[in-house]
Amino acid sequence: MPHVGSRTSVTRQEDDQLEGLELPLRHQGWVTSPLTRRLPQVTATDADSGPFGSISYSVGSGIGSVVPTQFSIDKRTGQLCTVQPLDRDEGADAYDFTVTAVDGGGLNSMVYVKVFLEDVNDNRPAFYPVEYAASISTQSMPGTAVLRVTAHDKDEGLHGKVTYHIVAGNSPPLFSLNKDTGVVSLSWSLSGKANTLVQLAISARDGGGLVAQPNAHVNISIVAGTVSPPVFEQAQYFFTVTEDTPQGTSVGAVRAQNPPGHSDDIFYSISSGDPHGYFSIDSGSGQLRISLPLDHEAQAVLVLDVQARSGSPPAYSNARVKIAVADVNDNVPTFPAPSDSILLPAATAPGTAVYTLQAEDRDSGANGQVHFELASGGDGVFSVERVSGTVRLVGMLPPEAGAPYGLVIVARDGGTPQLSATFTLLVHVQAVHDHGPVFDTLIYRVEVREGTPVATRFLQVRALARDAGTAPLTYHLRADGDAASFGIVPESGWLYVKSALDRETRDLYVLTVLASAGAGGGAGGRTGTSTVRVSVTDENDNSPRLSEERYFFTVPENQPPGTGVGRVTASDRDAGQNSRLTYRLLQHDPSFLVHTQTGELSARRSLDREQQSSYQLLVIVQDGGTPPRSATGTVHVTVLDENDNAPAFLHVAAGQELPVQVLEEKPSGHLVASLQAKDPDEGENGTVTYSLTGAWAERFTLHVATGELRTATMLRHADRAEYLFTVAASDQGMVPRSTSAVVRIQGQSSRPVLPKVDLHRADLVSAPPVLQTLSTASQ
């Protein structure tokens, strides 16, 4: 948890009524715990004694800010504490708020408090991008700048200062690195280094000693002569896409051409500008597609750096792609609270502005322009200005208090279709001759955590009787639906919890407190009223819930790295940080990663179904509560087959012949050979059929499915001693793949062949050998 600095500025504002009430700031020692850190204590003194001298403290909103939920104050001692971890890097670096002290007589005073967060070194530097590539000519002179690596550290000051170092790949030291700027430059002549690739690993270290993980990887191609990279058709591309466009939709394409005399294939990649991976690019076509859901309110414009490469070693060029994410009307206007109440004296003059509405719409342009309408409850007495949201009194109020006016006000945006939100303003009328007790404030606002034990006291209201000498005041709650969960001590005005509170069921209660003077507050007594707005704050009492216990996704093989596989979704009924969900894989997987914020599962690398056809992953979703709650789900990924393999003959090597011998005069249908080919693809992509081509092919038959080669007629060696055929094995894919082999069939005579006897030579050679030869031949 970042250290909470001791710099606290306090501005004092005294109420003229409070003579003798002093609010010096008293600094206390630090006490650290996993959640709570004590801040300086705010104390007030009151010259009065007895009940009028008792003081209670409360935290309120600062200048232009809301009441901070990160801090609490002890109502009795004024001790300020943090109630949740503070992170200067991800949130605010300072907080301002007010502390109000109220004495037993209802008088109050206020101070402004500002808390600054001091940075600690709790963030490592992080490279983006991690992969860098550039090309340089052997003719380049030492000192030439090649590229620049960049790492960012969220910390500030010395903790956020990054230095760079080459840690591998620079032997001999052809390149140098500026440790402060990250610029890689040529330091030696590249003579004799043509057509080589230098791969550098570069580390980043912050001022506190933390090192980036992983290092940056830099590939530098050294090209002979002039570098001739692909040339983009445009130096800059501009595309626009609406934020509700589905994933996988094409945004546009970039194109590059090889310079004259070069015909290598061109490959495209996104080198920077998209750290979250909202877009992907087809490496072969340059087509840009949406990979993650877009949100105009989160990021309206992305500027990508797209790189094209060709050749070996590759030469690189870059183009800038600006993608504007256009707004759609996907945000409803929101009020700070769904309702409020005010008290107006009956003598208020018509034309008086009595309240100003505030509503916000996160959309842009007309989609974010809000105007107000009075839907009901005005009764011709109130009006609402369409643009400013000012509520004005336009008629006379009744002289006596009656039922409050319930103004229902609608805020609409300018989108198509229009989105709206509703706000209720209760207007209480104070009678002209009302001399009942007066509360120290018209509206109390208090926060109570859900799960607060029953009977816990959380707020003391106070009222003063207008007439001296009246009987003690008695407090009670107006009986309505909101009051059922709370009670009040009649003698002291302490509100307490009467039944269990659940923010997920209800997060706001509006109570009407009555203070009565007279005999037991009964008939004939005068009564004063005040409103108490009880906001129920969240506790991390709900675990995330996955939309499915098991997810089944499919992805084609051979897709580029970064291809989306599917999305794991979860919800959490809690609010704020307690409902902020992050996703991760239970164990690191070399083939897949999950986006921490969106739950989008994508491939780290191109998948090969023939190597592995299915995967099972465990995904954990965790909320941001302290301590966090989590849920686990199983993801089954099936890799779909593509026809990326041609059949291969089992007994014939590529480019070689298969010799086969067959005896002559065998009957038709004689099995000559069984030609078998295998295809590792599946389904039709892996189903193999055979065909036979060549002269005299009609003398043989080849079974289309089994590859059995048989004679179609009786073969005679005297007719033809040898046959040469081409056998093709083809699969049944949409675009079939095939392999061919040459089969050489040699016919063999089925009769023994007698040696020819030279009679003249027999006369010259002794008889026994000739007889032996003839005998042997005749056997």
UniProtKB/TrEMBL annotation:
GO terms for cellular component: cell-cell junction; plasma membrane. It comes from the Eukaryota. The keyword Ribosomal protein does not apply. It is found in: Cell membrane. It is a single-pass type I membrane protein. Keywords: Calcium, Cell adhesion, Cell membrane, Disulfide bond, EGF-like domain, Glycoprotein, Membrane, Phosphoprotein, Repeat, Signal, Transmembrane, Transmembrane helix. One of its GO terms (molecular function) is calcium ion binding. SUPFAM superfamilies: Cadherin-like. This is Cadherin domain-containing protein. One of its GO terms (biological process) is homophilic cell adhesion via plasma membrane adhesion molecules. The lineage of its organism: Eukaryota, Metazoa, Chordata, Craniata, Vertebrata. CDD domains: Cadherin_repeat (cd11304).
